[in-house]
Amino acid sequence: MKQKVAVAIGTGDEQSYFINLAKKLGFFVIGFDKSINSKGSSICDVFYPICISDVDKIINTLEKYKPEFVIPSPIGKRLTTIGLIHDYFQINSFNHFATESVTNKLIFSQLLKRLNIPHPQTRMFQNIDQIIANFNQIDFPVIAKPNEGSGSRGLFIIKNKNSILDFENYYNQNKEFYKSGILIQSYIDGSDIGVDGLFLNNKIININLRKKFLNKSTYPLEIGYLAPFFISNDIYQGLTNSLNSVLKELNVKSCVFHADIITVKKKAYIIEMSFRPSGMNISSVLLPECLRINYCKHYMMHFICDDELLLSEKNHYRYQNSKFDRYYVMDYFFCDSYINKRVRFPTFDKICQLFQIYKLEIPKNGILEIHEPITSLQILKNGFMIYETNLDCDQIDVNRHKFYSLFKEI
């Protein structure tokens, strides 16, 4: 086969952008997904309706193709499938051990502790009964989460001892989230920040930071972002060193990665990390279209370009922890005032009085149904808006409230 082969593990809605990107770069794409009706299945050059957890069947199918790499795309626990493919075909990227180390939050926390990297205190419980039996040993507030990745499902802030009963009710209604156990981490009150980055040939080429906006709920979910986001050079350097330490400790060679951090004073606490691009339209829209940063493209180019050409690409990136006079806000249309209500979206003219709109995607009928979200997919279903701004976070919040005052209940 003349074309180099790229593998798509998962061909859903979010994966389709990255499959298209690989094809535009000239790769022959082999796709795997249990759903034959997934959006990306028709884009692949060859598609196999195989569940992405069936590693042996996928590897046996790929034997005749000899893949060059696996396409980076948003994927959760099944990142381990990609690690196994890398190991079997000796692809110079990240290994299976590394994927097990980051998809299991307890193991990742132990890794951070061993490397002396700032992180929240972490304890593991098998069920709610163990938490209740040991609540006198827990230093509240804490955040409860599944031990293994679950698409933002199962996050719950336990503010004090009295809140354990609230979590018990939530747990009993959502036990499927916690099959891998319940992780209890100390609640860190600081700036929640998302990190997206490119790691090639054992070094970080570039990282981009974005400020997270969270809903005001016991189920903390990301409802928007401000990018790029600036932190002090001391924190930035410490963060870069910490990320490098993790990647090298796990013997990662090259990858696109993202991490969740919280900054407090002069420290960056690493909460989670994974060797894949961010979802929620961050890596497919916000970064490549607004900030002109496409880590996935350059990761794929890494397999067809020489190192000297590729490394010169880093000069393309405008952002390296520098202050700018223009920023972008991504908003997913969630407001606590409209929970469990149907609202009509304001006219475009009225929105433009508040924002310089870059991109707007809403339901065709202009009607949003807003519910208390417990997963990122529920956040995404109403669409999103991206606009340019030169305002600080406080003023952005003021304008956001003005924007939601334009909604009309139905």
List the helices and strands and how they pair.
Layout: E1 5-9, H1 13-24, E2 28-32, E3 46-48, H2 55-62, E4 69-70, H3 79-89, H4 96-103, H5 105-114, E5 122-125, H6 128-133, E6 142-146, E7 156-158, H7 164-173, E8 182-186, E9 191-200, E10 203-214, E11 222-227, H8 233-249, E12 255-264, E13 267-274, H9 282-290, H10 295-301, H11 307-312, E14 327-331, E15 341-344, H12 348-352, E16 356-361, E17 367-370, H13 376-380, E18 384-389, H14 393-404, E19 408-409
Parallel strand pairs: 1-2, 1-4, 2-3
Antiparallel strand pairs: 5-8, 6-7, 6-8, 9-10, 9-12, 10-11, 11-14, 12-13, 14-18, 15-17, 15-19, 16-18
Task: Describe, in plain words, how this protein is organized in 3D.
This protein is α+β, with helices and mostly antiparallel strands and 410 residues long. It is built from 14 helices and 19 strands. It has helices at 13-24, 55-62, 79-89, 96-103, 105-114, 128-133, 164-173, 233-249, 282-290, 295-301, 307-312, 348-352, 376-380, 393-404; strands at residues 5-9, 28-32, 46-48, 69-70, 122-125, 142-146, 156-158, 182-186, 191-200, 203-214, 222-227, 255-264, 267-274, 327-331, 341-344, 356-361, 367-370, 384-389, 408-409. Strands 13-12-9-10-11-14-18-16 form an eight-stranded antiparallel sheet, sandwiched between helices. It has a four-stranded parallel sheet with strand order 3-2-1-4, with helices on both faces. A four-stranded antiparallel sheet has the order 5-8-6-7, with helices on both faces. Strand 9 (191-200) and strand 10 (203-214) form a beta hairpin. Helix 3 (79-89) packs antiparallel against helix 4 and helix 4 packs across helix 5. The longest helix is centred in the middle third of the chain and has 17 residues, at 233-249. It is globular. Mean pLDDT is 90; it is low at 308-319.
